Amino acid sequence: MSKRVADVxxxxxxxxxxxxxxxxxxxxxxxxxxxxSPTGFMxxxxxxxxxxxxxxxxxxxxxxxxxxxxxxxxxxxxNGVTEIIHTLNDFSIRFDEGPAGETGDYGSYGPYRQSxxxxxxxxxxxxxxxxxxxxxxxxxxxxxxxxxxxxEEENALQKGYYGxxxxxxxxxxxxxxxxxxxxxxxxxRLRSSGVDGKFRVFHDELRGDISMPENVMDAVIIKQDxxxxxxxxxxxxxHLMHTSDVIRADEWIASLPLHVxxxxxxxxxxxxxxxxxxxxxxxPKEDGESFSRRKLSKRKDPEARVHYYDEIGYPVAAVLDYLxxxxxxxxxxxxxxxxxxxxxxxxxxxxxxxxxxxxFDFNKLNSIARGRVAHMSCGEVYxxxxxxxxxxxxxxxSYIAAEPDRFRRSIPVWHDNxxxxxxxxxLMQMYPYLYDAGCRIDEIPMxxxxxxxxxxxxxxxRDYLEGFDPSDDSAAWFDKLRAIAAKYNYAVKMGQYKKHxxxxxxxxxxxxxxxxxxxxxxxxxxxxxxxxxVIGGEEAGRRVEKFCERF
Length: 551
Ligand code: GLU
Known about the structure:
This protein is mainly α. The chain contains 24 helices and 15 strands. Glutamic acid binds at residues 35-37, 69, 230, 234, 248, 252.
């Protein structure tokens, strides 16, 4: 177009692009960014992208910043920015620059919210208009429909707004000025320099060289509302914020030819690109035998939402360890050697994150989380569970509030030398006999294997109650159990029993399981003596009495 058109479209911009160039001088270090749109709950893939960007910057002595991509005003949610900031904080992903909350910023390359950068994009769009590298397009929705129809009819190899199909590409300056004077609405489009059918090699740090056709589309750069499209905003922002490495989801690979073209048309150096593979899931196909691979979906998979992990109480460190374990083959051995190191110490090599994409695997997550929980001290567990229960589990929270010390004493029961608990919501599920005051142990169906012992169980349990002394230590407590076993002809030594089972009514293991079941409603629990110490002798006695009533 021309300077005249550019001046009519953007008569009063506060600064020129040259002034912006001077305002944001190059950085002397690597810079990466996380650039989410505040459209609701964060996806686990977003958290993963943020984590990789953060580690990459730390690894290279660079800066990691947060940029909010909020140019699609229709998709915004209230408090979306705060939500993103909180989530990153919760997962200890610290950004060096970015928004400070719903308003305000840290860092000198801001504003870090695209909606506040409107005039910056416009200054660069004006530059393109002046150089005839962009033009206003007045096509209506109806024109778009007709264009698609004609392309169908004429079997156009590519559909879209380009070349001879681009109706407004060749309007004269007079025509443009007239339409502007009439107040017709318009978008601004790039005048693509791409040659139809010509291929070009694009480099991706993870995937190597990728050959793709040049971009021929006259892509929209500024929408009718004056805000930029993602494509244009990405290029202007990553240039002015001096992003050295754009590390983002692989859904953007297809846009690479357009993005590189925009960088080059604007005369900007092109950053290095890394397109991360998504976290996927296998879904059974209709034939019931084979599987298809698909991205985790916020709609279908609860585990796609970052909040899910907080809600069910996975420790933050476990989720981060998990994400890096499934994506980077080097992580697990590194973590084994450095169990206490902060995650930022991991020598991340993005080239070693798989191209195929990792598969989400709950078993792996749980096993990593169990290891992480076991690695925490009882004090850390106490703090973490208190915070979690206060947010998500009223029952557990009141249990803790009623007797915090009892809760503190209960932690070693399932924590020390065990790998049972992966997440805090396991506590109520696995140990209702410890934490759920309303738990009806007397209603839990009796194990079938008790049937052959029915006439002896009440006697055994009454003897147990009679000898019960809450101050007994573990050895004294078990000695008493042995004595009762002997009295009822249950083998005290397992070896004896295995050799001559016919000589006995059962073994000490059976006797313990009667007591265990009476007190917990389970046949398999952590150390029973420890459990009794936590619930208290009186309560344990009451449960045994109740159990006896069932015979
Ligand atoms: N706002 C884009 C998204 O959320 C960012 C892509 C990028 O990192 O450049 O997908």
